[in-house]
Amino acid sequence: MAESENRDLNYLKGELENGDWRRREDAAELLAELADPQAVDPLIKALKDEDCHVREAAALSLGVFEDKKVIAPLIEALDDEKASVRYAAAVGLSGAGDKSAINPLEKASNDENPVVKKVAQMALNSIKERQ
């Protein structure tokens, strides 16, 4: 990793701790663009953020990583109180493509929110097609 990329990574990881939720949200989104595996653990932690925008961004970002440890936290996020986070978790699971997400996504395809329901079904279909 180039020195500038490492500085960017460290800066963004630090921004996930910022007091301003907008900056935390931006950091979570930008960490996905870097796609550095060192971002996985801080993004998993961000799934527990007090702000739903940050949790949503973290869930979406985790979908770019092919790392088995993102699966369980994303499955847990399917039960978030906010529909936007549940939607993002389904998208993240679709990106991760792990078959262990099939049963939780089947459950999420019955979500009360029609957008979550639709995205969960799409994620489920995507994962099944890759098997």
Automatic annotation (TrEMBL):
<dbReference type="GO" id="GO:0016491">
    <property type="term" value="F:oxidoreductase activity"/>
</dbReference>
<protein>
    <submittedName>
        <fullName>PBS lyase</fullName>
    </submittedName>
</protein>
<dbReference type="InterPro" id="IPR016024">
    <property type="entry name" value="ARM-type_fold"/>
</dbReference>
<dbReference type="InterPro" id="IPR011989">
    <property type="entry name" value="ARM-like"/>
</dbReference>
<dbReference type="GO" id="GO:0016829">
    <property type="term" value="F:lyase activity"/>
</dbReference>
<keyword id="KW-0456">Lyase</keyword>
<dbReference type="InterPro" id="IPR004155">
    <property type="entry name" value="PBS_lyase_HEAT"/>
</dbReference>
<dbReference type="Pfam" id="PF13646">
    <property type="entry name" value="HEAT_2"/>
</dbReference>
